[in-house]
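# nightly structure sweep
# worker-07 picked up a monomer target from the shared queue
# config: single-sequence mode, recycle default, output format = structure tokens
# input follows
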Amino acid sequence: MRTINERLDDILPKITDPSFRENKGLGNEVGYYIFDYDPQYEMVVRNHIEYLKEKIKKEHPDLHIREFDLYEIVLEILEQKGYLQKNFEMEEKKGSDFVLNATKKALRLTLDNDLVIQYMSDRTQQSDIVFVTGVGKVFPIIRSHTVLNNIHRAVDQIPIIMFFPGEYDRQSLQLFNELKDDNYYRAFRLVD
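# output follows
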């Protein structure tokens, strides 16, 4: 069994390989990748993502990592719409389940005008490699398979890597190694 550090060390050579950005070897499919990891290594993975972004910025100026932390996106959208403080007040009065459903509706999740997907689309360029983070922090507002199933509408020609605190067996996602998400077959494991 490979260690988390060995697996993390394999990311840089993989994403800097020119064929990675061209999606070669994937049957010309859009490059959706998942880097799954044991949730206990969350801080190790976060620190490594920062390291990767800095290293690529210095040594590979032709590449650009665009990180989208789903949790931070949700907070920003709710703040911009004036809903964030209202959500806190509503949760005190009506409970967490009510606020969860109201938040999902406000974000228009899975609709054609999904605000999270639109947020990513508006900030992505063709030269980017997209890192999707914050999957565990944003649960249960956003489920990882929901993002993966809908992001193609906005970002369809560039590689996307979801950093997933749990297990991906190439068929299904299991958040925190406990919560089974829906099946998802279109993503590839970034590193075995």
